[in-house]
Structure formats: C-alpha cells, structure tokens
Amino acid sequence: MTTTATTLIESEELRDLRAAVAALGAKHGPDADPTAVWAEAGKLGYLGVNLPEEYGGGGGGITELSLVLEEMGAAGCPQLMMIVSPAICGTVIARFGTEEQKRRWLPGLADASLTMAFGITEPDAGSNSHRITTTARRDGDEWVLNGRKVFVSGVDIADATLIVGRTEDARTGRLKPCLFIVDRDAPGFGRRHIEMEIDAAEKQFELTLDDVRLPADRLVGDEDAGLLQLFAGLNPERVMTAAFALGMGRYALAKAVTYAKERTVWKAPIGSHQAIAHPLAQAHIELELAKLMMQRAAALYDAGDDFGAGEAANMAKYAAGEACVRAVDQAVHTLGGNGLTREYGLARLITGARVARIAPVSREMILNFVSHSSLGLPKSY
Ligand SMILES: Cc1cc2nc3c(=O)[nH]c(=O)nc-3n(C[C@H](O)[C@H](O)[C@H](O)COP(=O)(O)OP(=O)(O)OC[C@H]3O[C@@H](n4cnc5c(N)ncnc54)[C@H](O)[C@@H]3O)c2cc1C
Question: What keywords would UniProt list here (predicted)?
Fold first, then answer.
C-alpha cells in the first residue's frame, strides 16, 4: 500500500479506536454530566492520544485526537476543551516546552486530571491577531503581564490558561508573540463570565491581566520563536474545530434520518419525499467531504508538514463548519415542529453549530487566507 493510500483508508487500529470511543459516547449520550464524560475519557487515555508516550500520552497524533472528538460529538457529548487542552496547549508544550514544563503539565493533560485553556482573542483586535496588545515585560527573574482577552473558553475549570502575549524585541523594538502559562488563581488574573446563547457546558470569559507576575519558567519555549510555536498550536486547533463540527453535524443528521424513516403523515414515511431525502443526502455528502479534508490536514500535520497542514487545516475547518451549519438546519427542519422542542434536542444545536463558523477563525478570514495564500490574490486590508 502506498503512503497516499494509507492516509485515505483508515487503519484497523484507527477503526478500533473509533468504535471504542463511539461506545463510550453511546454510554453517556447528550444528557450526561460533561465532567464525568471528561474524567472517564481521560482515564481511558482518549484525551491524550496525541501526546508523547514518555509523558503519559498515547503516542499518536492529531489524527487520533480529532477522531476521538468527532466520535464524542457524533454521540451527542462533544468536549470543546479537547480543542484547547490536549490539542493546542499539549502540542505546544510537547514540541517547545522545557523538560521541566513537559513533566509538570503533560501527564496531567494526557489523563485529563489537568486542563488548560487558551487565550488569544482580544476585544480590540478580534480577527486581526497582529493587533493584540497583551504585553509581557521582563522584571528581574519575573515576567509581568498586562492586557485583556475575550471569549476565552473554560477558564473557570482549567487549572491554567496559555496566554498569547507579546514581548518587545530589544534590537528592533518590534513586538513578538510569546506564550505564557498563567495559573487560574494568579494574583491580578481576573475573569468575567460572558453570558452566551449557546447550550454548552463550557463557559466563555473576558479576562483581565493586571500586573500578573510570573516566574521566568512560565514562558513556553523560545522567546524568539513565538510565531512558529503559535502556529504549531493553531493548526491542531483548526483540525479539532473541524472534528467538533463534524461530530455535531453527524449527530444532528442521524437524529433527522431516524425521524424521517418513522414519521408518516401521508402514505409513506416523510423520508421518502425527495424534498426531505435529498437535503439530508446532501448534508451527508458535505460532512464526508469535509472529513476527508480534515483527515488530510491531520495526516500532513502528523507527518511534520506544518506549512502544508496550514492550508488543509483552514480548508477543513471552513468545510466542516459550513457542513455542520447546513446539517443542523436541515435536521431541525426535518422534524417539523418537533425540531424546535426541547425534548428532541436539535434546536439547541442551532447556535452551537455557528460556533465552528466564527471560531477560532471566521469563515471570512479563511476565505481571505485561501484568496491570498493559495490563489495569490491581492489583499484588501
Ligand atoms: C463559543 C466561543 C468560544 C471561543 N473560545 C475561545 C477561546 O477559548 N480562546 C480564544 O482566544 N478565543 C475564543 N473565541 C473567540 C473567537 O476565536 C473569535 O470570536 C473569533 O476569532 C472572531 O473574532 P471576533 O469575535 O472579534 O470577530 P471580529 O474579528 O470582530 O469579526 C466580526 C465579523 O467581521 C468579519 N471580518 C473581520 N475582518 C474581516 C476581513 N478582513 N474580511 C472579511 N471579513 C472580516 C468576520 O469574519 C466576522 O464575521 C471563542 C468564540 C466563541 C464564539
């Protein structure tokens, strides 16, 4: 079998992992206590499948981790924090952390006894992350952080947050991105819960960093390689957001298909009417196509091709986000009035599905990236 073929056809090991995670998801389902699901999935090693074996992980890659998130979502119990804790923070620490940082954080992130949030978005920068102003100043042996972040997920349940800040280059005066681990209860680290219209266990927060003092070892990796390190974490983030969207889309579609096979208001089930069947078939095709791109992005990333993974991960996130929004919309419609009831649990996905369209990078910013980077078109900004 050629290398290309192996990335397109799932190995027996991956199929076994998929079946095992699907069984765990089926056991818990959409009404489960998310903390219990997180703890059990962690204990079984599913949340750290991508982390190195020597630090308690499964020794796999983003291929395995995205498969886990997709299956949990397809069972109705997605774990949003998988996108940030093992995928972004775990990856960045495993690739760029010091030996001490790896030993301090990775075993906990791998078995989910420790959770880490990730904060990059700022109120005045938004999609333009070049404009972030959270700054880190060196003061003797310490770093002093000041700034604000917004929409950061899970800060209340995370033991620490990986904060993207900037330090000043002593030679050029230019600000360089740098990553810092800030403990949940660090003095000066404030958080305000933002009320969202999303039915999810994970909450979003506005953060204030007001002279937060950190020991020197809280800087992850090299001060001069911040951008490279950041991108190493952002590609897994996009692949994992695609997995989140695919899981949700598959969950909604399965519910609609079951309903369309049973519900009969004329002579035959509503699923026999092409006006119901075709949009569901279309949703299935779009989800499968997005999944193919997600698998390609994960395979490129796991093979060490950060650059190639960048384009594929962006396209996968775009395709999965759009496929998820359309699948949820069609699923709700298929159930008629029941689509909007609490009992059937589909209407609550309408806002949830939109998350993958706007975060961690919006649909438009991916279209911009593909226009400029893949097609070489000029920029408007
Ligand atoms: C549920 C949820 C969880 C999140 N979790 C986290 C987290 O854990 N950590 C974190 O750091 N952030 C998190 N975010 C933030 C998220 O990444 C941002 O919301 C996202 O990057 C968009 O930024 P913004 O909201 O400031 O929108 P803006 O940048 O203000 O954009 C608003 C609109 O303008 C469009 N737009 C902007 N610039 C352009 C342009 N040049 N061309 C065309 N259109 C443009 C955008 O596409 C968008 O539609 C989360 C957000 C949500 C909703």
Answer: FAD, Flavoprotein, Oxidoreductase
